[in-house]
Design brief:
single chain, alpha/beta, TIM Barrel, 8-stranded parallel β-barrel, binds flavin mononucleotide
Length: about 300
């Protein structure tokens, strides 16, 4: 058998392999270029970007947990103009799909950021709807169908770029949110963002994070993510990009069997920056070993009892 085809097409964007670096865990790629060419990855989802630069939350912003981390970075980023002028040109010189991940405190923030990116050659926009809606008292956009739909609709009207809406797992039924954003024109959904958690120092009785609470990620969340990807894959027609705790090629294959058309890898990169490269190579080997010609043939192919 010739080499299996591990390329994927997500809403018209070709990725040479299904591995994408997850937003917030890979910066804008620069720190990793000393280790390997970024082109070894199918894509990069850049650090969450807002209309104006943001300093993020007060430290401590990271707490270790069994098999994962809690973070409350608070969207520290240099702002969309810096991204467009400094990071995007460097990334676009390489053969890698560049995904801008955007966040906002108001609908206008999302609209303006998306409209600005529409004028660039970024390949796709990922909407982070796990941040607070300031006008609604800080409620997270993505925890209600109405909130998730309103952001998606606004961004859909602001850009012709493919839009991937990133869902929060901190909801009662993630399939309802997925259907709501699909109805407003999302081209894909990505999931999961982090699970809300908390840790306390028993000696000081202070929460370890200055923000008190933070988002849990890493291998600890993997089974939750697989379950949600499977549920959402069965609820919508648009592609699902799976993430949450992936740390190996085997995890990536499992996520794709659950229904992911491509995957993102985040926290695992902190312990081994080569995980995305090894995962891409391992997926190809899995297909060869099992006589599968193309990666698309495993997507959603779990056989439920
Ligand atoms: C330190 C850190 C920063 C993150 N920043 C962002 C962000 O800016 N935007 C976003 O959509 N997700 C962000 N995430 C969430 C990840 O992209 C991903 O959804 C989550 O961590 C689950 O995947 P993982 O277990 O592979 O890390 C961040 C995660 C971590 C650990």
């Amino acid at each position: 058998m010739s080499r299996p085809d591990i390329s994927v097409n997500i809403c018209g964007v070709r990725l040479k392999n299904p591995i994408i670096a997850a937003s917030g865990t890979y910066g804008f790629g620069e720190e990793y270029t000393d280790l390997y060419p970024l082109e070894k990855l199918g894509g990069i989802s850049c650090k969450g970007t807002t209309l104006l630069p943001k300093d993020g939350n007060i430290p401590p912003r990271i707490a270790e947990t069994p098999s994962g981390i809690l973070n409350s970075v608070g969207l520290q980023n240099p702002g969309v103009e810096h991204f467009i002028n400094e990071d995007l040109p460097r990334l676009k010189r390489q053969d890698i799909a560049v995904i801008a991940n955007i966040a906002g405190a108001s609908i206008e923030d999302y609209e303006k950021t998306a409209a600005r990116l529409d004028e660039t050659d970024v390949d796709m926009i990922e909407l982070n709807i796990s941040c607070p809606n300031v006008k609604q008292g800080g409620a997270t956009w993505g925890v209600t169908c109405a909130g998730a739909a309103s952001v998606t609709k606004a961004v859909r009207n602001a850009t012709k770029k493919p839009i991937m809406v990133k869902l929060t797992p901190n909801v009662t039924d993630i399939t309802e949110i997925a259907k709501a954003v699909e109805a407003e024109g999302a081209d894909a959904v990505s999931l999961i963002n982090t699970l809300l958690g908390m840790r306390i120092d028993i000696h000081t009785r202070r929460p370890i994070l200055h923000n008190n609470v933070g988002g849990l990620s890493g291998p600890a969340v993997f089974p939750v993510a697989v379950r949600m990807v499977w549920q959402v894959h069965n609820a919508v027609k648009i592609p699902v990009i799976g993430m949450g705790g992936i740390a190996s090629a085997e995890d990536a294959v499992e996520m794709m069997l659950a229904g992911a058309s491509a995957v993102q890898i985040g926290t695992a990169i902190f312990t081994d920056p080569y995980v995305p490269v090894k995962a891409a190579e391992g997926i190809e080997k899995y297909l060869s070993d099992n006589g599968i010609e193309k990666i698309g043939d495993i997507v959603g192919q779990v056989k439920p009892w």
